[in-house]
Structures are given as C-alpha cells and as structure tokens.
Amino acid sequence: MKKIYRVTLAVAERNELEGMLRAGKSAARTLTRARILLKADQSDDGPAWPDSEIARALDVHPDTVADVRRRLVEGGLRAALEHKPQVTPRTPRKLDGRGEAALVKLACSKAPLGHASWTLRLLADELVRLEVVDSISIHTVGRTLKKTSSSRGRTSSG
Predict the structure, then answer these.
(1) Domain total in the chain
(2) CA gap 9, 42 in Å, rounded
(3) CB contact set of 83 (below 8 Å; sequence gap of 6+)
(4) Backbone dihedral angles phi then psi of residue 7, each to the nearest 5 degrees
(5) What is the 3-state secondary structure (H, E, C) of the chain?
C-alpha cells in the first residue's frame, strides 16, 4: 500500500530526535513517537521500516504509527511529538459544583424510611426526583462520593 504521509526528516530534526532518546528525559509517549519517526524516516539513509514492523518493534498499534506520521507531515515535528490536549471533555459532567454539594448533603442526611442507609441507587434516584439532574448512573454517584471523601451518612469515630 502506498503511504500518503512520507516522513523525510532534516538532519537537524534527526539529531534532535536522537538527542532526546539519548537523554531519556522526555515522557515515554514522546520518546515512543520519536522512535516511530526515526524508523519511518525516508531520507538519504535508506528505506524506512514498514508501519507494521515499526508497530511490532515498538509495541504500539499500526494506527499509532500512521497517526504520528500524519501529524508530522501536517503539523511539523512538535505536533508529532507532543500530546494534543483535549479542548473540551468528551461528555459534559453530570454533576457540577452545586450538584456535587446536593449529593453530599443528601448522602449525609438521614436515610429514607425503610432503609438503614443510603445506597448508590437510592441517591441516584433521589437526585433525579429532586431535579438536580435529568438522569445519573450509580457509578457517577459513587465516583463523586469517593472524590469528595463522603461516607454516605456514616459518622466517623476518632
């Protein structure tokens, strides 16, 4: 298959990548990307490795090799090496600060009649009933309580 994105490194770029690898002071992901670029280089030194061999040698997915190659061609060396930060979270948070406060307040309150203590399902259902959220999973409730160090209404002794 013909490669769309050909990696041809300048001498200065090759030296920079080799220096990074010798120093070993960068993040593991960055060093792996540097190795990918060096193996994919099609400059005067000879033919580049096939993507499948690069992936196998560096223990990455072949799509990672293709993506690093594409990012170099489209955005340059920095774009290929650096992690692209996420602009926005993939899904909006179910509980903002006020929602978290409502959850903790609820979890610390007395359990509903017929229950010895709050369960994650009871808390999730109550948040929906109180219209704090439209819907919420028990996993989100549990993660939020864990993050806020809440003990669902239990008192600590000590």
Answers:
(1) 2
(2) 8
(3) 27, 29, 30
(4) -95, 115
(5) CCCCCCECCCHHHHHHHHHHHHHCCCCHHHHHHHHHHHHHECCCCCCCCCHHHHHHHHCCCHHHHHHHHHHHHHHCHHHHHCCCCCCCCCCCCCCCHHHHHHHHHHHHCCCCCCCCCCCHHHHHHHHHHCCCCCCCCHHHHHHHHHHCCCCCCCCCCC
Report yes or no on 6 lying in a domain. no
In a domain, 77, yes or no: yes
Quick one: average pLDDT of 148-155?
59
Alpha carbons 123 and 79: distance in angstroms, whole number:
44
Residue at token pair 């002071």: 25
Last residue in a domain, options 52, 81, 110: 81
Q: How confident is the model at residue 154 (pLDDT cuts 50, 70, 90)?
A: low
Place of tokens 């989100």: 140
